[in-house]
C-alpha cells in the first residue's frame, strides 16, 4: 500500500512538472550520452523581405561551423501567442535534461520599440515534441519598454533559472541587461538590472562555471564591440569587463558563445545587420577573452538565418531531429576563393554573387543525376524548375531542358575532388572533358585549367 502511494505520488509530481513546462527527467541511457553535434535555432530575413519568417527554424552541424538546415529551411515551430511572431530565439537544456526555448515577441514588420513585458516560451522533452506556445511576463514592473533577446542561465545560489534580456528600465534613457528569475517558466520574478555600463547594451549570453568563473557577453553600442565581462558569481551587478571583446563590423550584434566538442577552444558568433543575413565568427579562449576572426571559407550559416542560438546535442538528438524534420532538397555552391560568393543565375546568366541577395532562390540548386546518366551531375534551378546550368560556347547560363542529347551533354558535369582543395569539389564538363566549371570575373564558364588561379576558380563547396 505504501509503495503504491509512493509510485502514485511520483507520477502526480511528474505530471505536474510536465504541465508546468519542466518535464520529468530523460531516460538515463540518453542523458548519459555525450554531446556529439550541435543544433542551431534562428529566424530568417532577406534583403527584400521576401524571406522574412518570424518563427523558429532549426539546423544541425557536426562541427558547429557548417550547418544543414532542417525542414528545407522552413520554420519548424510557429508562434501562436502574443503578436504571433518571434525574433531572437534562445535554446537551453534544463537541468533535468529537457529543453526550453525562449524568444522575443515581435511579428514580421512589427515595431522594435513597442513596449512589451512578455516573451515566448516553449518546452520539449526531445526537441521534436513541443508544448503549446505561451507568454511569460519577465518585465512585470516595466510597462514602458521592450523585452528583447531573452537568454537563460542557471543560478545555483538562488536555485532558479535567470532569464536575461534587453530593456530600458523606468527612468533610464539607455538600454541595460535585466534579469528575471523562474523555476518553472510559467511565472517569473519582477526584473532587476543585471548589467549596466551607463550606455546602451543589448543581446546577452551568460556562460556559467568556466574555470570557477562566469562570463557575460553582450553588444556594447558605445564601443561597437561584442564585449565580455566576468564574475565569480552570477549576482546582478557583479560582472566586470575582462576583455576588449571583438569588433569587425559595427553592425554586428547578438553574441553567441559555443564550446568546441573536441578541444578547449570556444566559438563566438555575431549576427550582422548591415548587410543583413550574414554572420561573423571568431574562435578563441573564453577564459582569457582572446579571439581570432575565422575566415568565411571555414563556416557556412543557414541561408537567411538571423540571431542564432547554438547548443550541443547528442547523436540521438541529431538523428531524431533529422528523422522528424528532414534536411534540404537543395544545395548551395560556395566559391572556394571568394567564400562569401555563391553560384547563382541572374537574368539567365550564370555567375557567382555575394550573399545576401534577392531573389535568394537564384542560388539554390537541386543536384540531379546527370542528364547524360549515372556518373554525372546536373544543376537544376529551384525557382526555375526544369531549367539547368548549361554551357554554350563555353559560357554557362540557365536554360530549359529541351530533351535533346546535346542539351544533356552541355548540362552535365562529373564531380571530382576539388582542383585547389581535395576536401571540396570541382565539376568537369561532360561535353568537353578537359574543361571545368569555373568563374572568371564572377561569370561562369567551362575552361581549361592551367594555373593556380584557374584551379581556385574551379573549386566549390557544396553546402546547404
Automatic annotation (TrEMBL):
Residues 1-23 form the signal peptide. Residues 42-143 form the Glycosyl hydrolase family 32 N-terminal domain. Keywords: Glycosidase, Hydrolase, Signal. Transmembrane segments: none annotated. Residues 334-462 form the Alpha-L-arabinofuranosidase B arabinose-binding domain. Belongs to the glycosyl hydrolase 32 family. This is Alpha-L-arabinofuranosidase. It comes from Streptomyces gulbargensis.
Amino acid at each position: 500500500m505504501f509503495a503504491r502511494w509512493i509510485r502514485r505520488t511520483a507520477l502526480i509530481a511528474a505530471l505536474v512538472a510536465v504541465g508546468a513546462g519542466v518535464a520529468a527527467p530523460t531516460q538515463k541511457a540518453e542523458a548519459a550520452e555525450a554531446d556529439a553535434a550541435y543544433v542551431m535555432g534562428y529566424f530568417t530575413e532577406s534583403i527584400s523581405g521576401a524571406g522574412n519568417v518570424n518563427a523558429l527554424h532549426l539546423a544541425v552541424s557536426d562541427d558547429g561551423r557548417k550547418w544543414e538546415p532542417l525542414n528545407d529551411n522552413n520554420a519548424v515551430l510557429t508562434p501562436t501567442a502574443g503578436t504571433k511572431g518571434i525574433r531572437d530565439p534562445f535554446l537551453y537544456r534544463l537541468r533535468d535534461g529537457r529543453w526550453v526555448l525562449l524568444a522575443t515577441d515581435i511579428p514580421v514588420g512589427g515595431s522594435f520599440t513597442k513596449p512589451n513585458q512578455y516573451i515566448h516560451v516553449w518546452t520539449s522533452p526531445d526537441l521534436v515534441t513541443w508544448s503549446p506556445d505561451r507568454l511569460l511576463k519577465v518585465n512585470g514592473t516595466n510597462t514602458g519598454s521592450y523585452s528583447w533577446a531573452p537568454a537563460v542561465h542557471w543560478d545555483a545560489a538562488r536555485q532558479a533559472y535567470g532569464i536575461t534580456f534587453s530593456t530600458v528600465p523606468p527612468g533610464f534613457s539607455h538600454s541595460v541587461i535585466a534579469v528575471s528569475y523562474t523555476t518553472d517558466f510559467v511565472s517569473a520574478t519582477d526584473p532587476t538590472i543585471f548589467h549596466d555600463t551607463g550606455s546602451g547594451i543589448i543581446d546577452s549570453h551568460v556562460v556559467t562555471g568556466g574555470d570557477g568563473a562566469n562570463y557575460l557577453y553582450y553588444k556594447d553600442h558605445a564601443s561597437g564591440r561584442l564585449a565580455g565581462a566576468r564574475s565569480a558569481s552570477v549576482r546582478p551587478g557583479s560582472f566586470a569587463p575582462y576583455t576588449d571583446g571583438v569588433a569587425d563590423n559595427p553592425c554586428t550584434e547578438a553574441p553567441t558563445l559555443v564550446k568546441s566538442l573536441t578541444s578547449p577552444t570556444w566559438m563566438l558568433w555575431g549576427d550582422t545587420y548591415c548587410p543583413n543575413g550574414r554572420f561573423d565568427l571568431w574562435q578563441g579562449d573564453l577564459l582569457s577573452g582572446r579571439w581570432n576572426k575565422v575566415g568565411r571559407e571555414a563556416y557556412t550559416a543557414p541561408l537567411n538565418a538571423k540571431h542564432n542560438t547554438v547548443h550541443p546535442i547528442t547523436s540521438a538528438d541529431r538523428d531524431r531531429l533529422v528523422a522528424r524534420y528532414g534536411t534540404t532538397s537543395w544545395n548551395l555552391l560556395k566559391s572556394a576563393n571568394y567564400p562569401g560568393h555563391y553560384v547563382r543565375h541572374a537574368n539567365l546568366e550564370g555567375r557567382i554573387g555575394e550573399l545576401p541577395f534577392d531573389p535568394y532562390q537564384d542560388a539554390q540548386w537541386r543536384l540531379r543525376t546527370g542528364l547524360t546518366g549515372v556518373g554525372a551531375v546536373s544543376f537544376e534551378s529551384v525557382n526555375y524548375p526544369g531549367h539547368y546550368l548549361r554551357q554554350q560556347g563555353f559560357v554557362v547560363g540557365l536554360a530549359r531542358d529541351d530533351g535533346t542529347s546535346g542539351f544533356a551533354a552541355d548540362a552535365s558535369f562529373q564531380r571530382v575532388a576539388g582542383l585547389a582543395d581535395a576536401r571540396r569539389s570541382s565539376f568537369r564538363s561532360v561535353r568537353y572533358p578537359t574543361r571545368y566549371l569555373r568563374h572568371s570575373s564572377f561569370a561562369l564558364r567551362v575552361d581549361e585549367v592551367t594555373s593556380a588561379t584557374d584551379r581556385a576558380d574551379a573549386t566549390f563547396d557544396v553546402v546547404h
